[in-house]
Amino acid sequence: MLAVGAALTAVVACSGRGGDRTGEPAAATTTRPTGTEYKVPATHPSDWGAPEVELPEAPRPYGPSPAATADPAFYDVTTLDAEAIAAAEPGAVLRSEPVSLTGPLTGASGWRILYRSTTAADTSAVVSGMVLAPDGSAPPDGRPVAAWAHGTTGIADRCAPSATSNLFYDDYAAEARRLLDQGFVVAATDYHGLGTPGVHSYHVSDELALATVDSVAAAHRIDAVGPLTRSWVVVGHSEGGLAALAVDQRADEVLPGLDYRGAVVAAPSAQLGSVAAAMFAVPEGRGYAALLLEAAAELNPSLDPAVALQPAATAREALLTHGCWEEAVPGFADLDATEMLASLEVGELLGKVLDTCCASDPKAALGPLLVVHGEADQPLPAELTAGLVKDLCAAGVTVEYRTYPGADHDEVMAASGEDGRRWLADRLDGVDPPSNCATAAH
């Protein structure tokens, strides 16, 4: 869930895998070093246990955000051994507990987990997430794994999908249910700093990728899940679409013992640098842009909302640190564009930072990819994704690109559900992946 608004469209310039699905023992080890130091991240107002503040008056047309049902103590990394974390392999499960699932996930089995990952600076990290398995016994040859990469829920720890019993939204739970019904075990990461201490590295593509890949390795380490095959895929929406693209660029490199089959990429927010400044100008984009400032301040202090925003917008910073999507995103929509940025240079600087930290490189993609977008997506216009697909095709990546009339940013998940099911089934069966690059994005 990430918006840039229909007004931003003016800024946009108009390899297949086969192999058998086997039950061979999965080697889910990574190629990254395992002895990097672990330090608990510096505290941030978005963390569990931070002083509570009263949220400022602001539009809340969608009601309050979902309440977390997990015990915050589960996410307390200070009760873990720092040396053991540093020595563990990426994907090692550090803590787990069963979860009673609700909504579309009712009937499946679930485990809330903390697992070892790595930061973009190549230091140890602890990331939270959830692993889901279909009800009943696994087939003798095992089940494949689908990594689910979620879209924007917020940056406060209470917005972590694993802190709820339905991955925060029933829309996301329904996406996971489709994967479960297809026979996948689902590894659903929260990403760095969402659930665990420190600010969520919102849209930092390296860390989105590492958290997602390591969740797959973690799923292979939970005995109760049952046998797993070597095959795995990634499915992502919005911010998770960027995560899926970033995973695709390094999937074989970081999990060489497994068999990556491709990615389903829904409405990806993969080119925000080019539209960052314009996001503050449209009501649909201001809340997202403010979230990006809050997270990007960790990379450049000049982007701290306390100095980067006008007083009227700064007064609503608690919506970012203590609210979730329902509070943060619409919470700035009623402000005038002139009440947002302290200077035009802030928007330009944010764009440069996002181009560096928070984008995908089409030339590095492996594929195959199924890229889907709703034609009625007002928050993230389809033209952005069409440009991305054009670049992917030019780089020689095998891409099937589909758009859906009448589907908005979230509705594209359900609208593309059957196409995604078919595409994933063919990848598992070793069918040559399709490409419509000759006609897509033109």
Automatic annotation (TrEMBL):
Low complexity composition-biased segments: 24-37
Record-linked InterPro entries: AB_hydrolase_fold, Lipase_secreted
One GO biological process term: lipid catabolic process
Chain residue ranges for the region called Disordered: 15-60
Spans through the membrane: none
An annotated Gene Ontology molecular function: triacylglycerol lipase activity
Top-rank taxon: Bacteria
UniProt name for this protein: Putative lipase
Native organism: Candidatus Neomicrothrix parvicella RN1
